[in-house]
Amino acid sequence: MRQVLLIHSFGYRAGPPPEWSAAPPDVVEDVRSLINPYKLAEYHDLSGLDAPVREFVVAQPKAQQILDRAEARILALIDAPSRPILRAGFGCTGGKDRSVALAAEFATRAERWDADLDVVLRHWQVHERSGADRRGYE
Fold first, then answer.
1. Total domain count for the chain?
2. Residue 77: which domain range?
3. Which residues form the RapZ C-terminal domain (predicted)?
4. The sheet that has 3-11: what strands, in order across it?
5. What is the pTM of this model?
């Protein structure tokens, strides 16, 4: 049976995705310790969906440590018959830059694992910066 790995990005300011109240994640990584690209002029109008922001965030040495730790924790759960759905979350302050970039990078990594696994990536708050009332999934 194929397992599903559900990966979320979110912002601590607005809170985690609502479905976590019924099904909490197996792994949550707080990525607020990484340098926030939003505070740098060249990235201010971008999000973690944009390649320059993702590259900036992922290039930070601490980002690699966070990704490696999350990977080890999820890999330990793969093939557990009682775990058809695995959940990982990455949270930053607003849920638009660091968490989005690391969740996307984690999904890319997971797709390369030699596992019978479907990878699903969801971004919870990435569109809020535009001023649109679009809190929800990308």
1. 1
2. 3-130
3. 5-124
4. 27-30, 85-92, 3-11, 117-123
5. 0.89
